[in-house]
Specification:
single chain; alpha/beta; Rossmann fold; pyruvate-formate lyase- activating enzyme; OB fold (Dihydrolipoamide Acetyltransferase, E2P); 5-stranded mixed β-barrel; 37% helix; 23% strand; globular; disordered N terminus; binds S-adenosyl-L-homocysteine; binds iron/sulfur cluster; binds FE3-S4 cluster
Length: 484
Amino acid sequence: MLPDEERRDVSKTHKLYIETVGCQMNMLDSELVVAALRKRGYELTDSAKSADTILFNTCSVRQHAEDKIYSALGRLKNAKQNHPDKVIGVIGCMAQKDQKLIFQRAPYVDLVVGPGQLHQVPDLIDAARGKAEQRMEVSLGRRDGSRDEISRSHESFDPLRDPEMRPTPYQAYVRIMIGCDKFCTYCIVPSVRGPEQSRPPEHLLAEARQLAAEGCKEITLLGQTVNSYRYRDGARIWRLSDLLNAIHDVDGIERLKFVTNYPKDMTDDLLSAVRDLPKVSSYLHVPVQSGSNRMLERMKRGYTVEEYREMLDRIRQMIPEAAVTSDFIVGFCGETDDDFQQTCDLVRAARFKNSFIFKYSERPGTKGAERFADDVPEEVKKQRNNELLLIQNQISEEDNLKFLGRHVEILVEGPSKASQQRGEEGPLLQLTGRTHCDRIVVFQGNQRQIGQILPVIIFDTSAFTLHGEVVTGEAGPELFSLGA
Ligand code: SAH
Ligand code: SF4
Ligand code: F3S
């Protein structure tokens, strides 16, 4: 039996439901918010119905991401009428962008909290419960003060961690910087995430050590332009390469990745670090966005296709095994067939491991929306999206074929999607893991292998997946000689 004190605590437990959309930054923010709420006795639930606190961690990068949240909010109208004690909060990038508009569109929302104010979430929820008053906490806009004032109003929120909210207990994100100062004309991120600010190396190292002590093996460093990291520590300037070197020495961390790279900041010191540090994955996400100089200029990306290709050549020369991936926007303002064909040519030549392709979505308040008409019809955007995807998928398929018969090392992440759908309940089940170059491998395994780094031999491939078999002790030495 529980002592009285604890019994009361259990009966008081709040149930939290959280839905997260957007990029890895948001996934990390959700992890941190959940950790802070758990400290106050909250328990996670995967049913919005049974929760007394519902949070949406939102994204504004494309209209579609916002629509999804507004329709989810629409479905909660009755829930709030029937249970006025429920607290509904909208946090993250759309909270910063839409602010009071959220209350207008969904009057039963209690809280709107921007990504620079997440440290306030637990107190705000406590204050909101059972009260009619709505609360909004957002950071200053990019034109609403001096750079210092604006920076201070966007606080990096990196306190406690919560392993249950991570992709897996063995993998964690560490945010090395917040914000973005690149102001690509199509992009909302600089205005919702505020000025670029790098976090102090000693905080990052302490976080890495703590994660390692908790059993985490892989750390992915996060930043909107992660390779623009710069931190002045007295006379010393820390760059991403210095950070990688320092975190590389943390015992227990076996893999290091970093996303997302800005092409112009892909310096040789960084490439040398990737080449020379065995724990650093040879996986580089360096979005190019378009293969047309005219579009790149309109996007204000700050490089030409030729410069991007030179950078790619440098990567291939210094790290021949590197897997490079990219993002593309199709149908940006004024994009002609010819511009688009130049993008197709670049994809054919660059042979990215994979590409994320997005249809341009006009974002109010951006320079793109102010200066240019969103004049490519939706149908054409769709067509271009599909066409580019086909080209990329064929390349991915061809490149994956090269892995046939090869030996790779994977970090086992957990049951594969198919295994989850089939409801397989171990110990023997289909598992999934990732190679050093971020390729997905599925294999028949045992539950106890989750979280281990294992040698696997590849016997089948597709555009998206490698199929492998664990290399066992006796067969090891011969199979190990088969390649990377
Ligand atoms: N900071 C990263 C990614 C930012 S958002 C970078 O600089 O690459 C992720 C991707 O979304 C971008 O790379 C871009 O391809 C896409 N994106 C951003 N704004 C968009 C918009 N308005 N419409 C469509 N796609 C967009
Ligand atoms: Fe957006 Fe450009 Fe900054 Fe990336 S670099 S977050 S695309 S403004
Ligand atoms: Fe979306 Fe904000 Fe990330 S707008 S892409 S969640 S930084």
